[in-house]
TrEMBL record:
Enzyme Commission designation: 6.3.2.6
Protein family membership: Belongs to the SAICAR synthetase family.
Annotated gene: purC
GO MF annotation terms: ATP binding; phosphoribosylaminoimidazolesuccinocarboxamide synthase activity
Keywords: ATP-binding, Ligase, Nucleotide-binding, Purine biosynthesis
Organism: Moorena producens 3L
EC class (word): ligase
Protein name (Swiss-Prot/TrEMBL): Phosphoribosylaminoimidazole-succinocarboxamide synthase
Amino acid sequence: MSPDQKLYEGKAKILYTTDDPEILLTHFKDDATAFNAQKRGQISGKGEINCAIASHLFKVLEENGIATHFIDRPTPNQMLVKQVKIVPLEVVVRNIAAGSLCQQTGIPEGRVLPKALVEFYLKNDDLGDPLLTRDRLLLLELATPEQLKQLIEQALRINQILTDFFYQCGITLVDFKLEFGLTPSEELLLADEISPDTCRLWNQAETDPERRVMDKDRFRKDLGNVEQAYQQVLQKVLESKL
């Protein structure tokens, strides 16, 4: 299915319409951004790597009962997806303290949390994607109370599936971001992507705080070897038997 016209271009992907009004074509770019696009660059091959990882993980989740927008991967850096209305929320699940959680609370990086923490951020670059309380989320009518319950349940279930999957890959899933969309019938589907761009992933074979990083933090923190880290994640994901 070939692309028709550009519908939307974001930081990491371009969405095209297709000859089926219910299906979109997602093109994964090599562009990399951090700190709300204040830092920009390119990671060679990132589009193909992330598309391959995301496609594989969507299949794993589908096999475990999670409904997603994924349909197929027709080319190395393109994904066919069901058209959905994106819920304007970033759903973040944290297993280990890192990133903004440490910056905002003083919790030391690397501390294992007593239970998975689910957070919501408003998808709004102009406002800096602020952290929302659940009452604010409902006040802004970004989701209904029932949808909020679904989002939390789905996020925790996805976390369990992915934590177990990555563990089999020799990778620790530190935290990750999810996005969801609604079909015309109001069914909630997991959307966007799951990749080293949207997850913090640590190599279990490494104890050094820098060498263990296998995700976009290598780009954010100028740690180098970004493409190699992404390639290593892809290799481990594709080799996993889970």
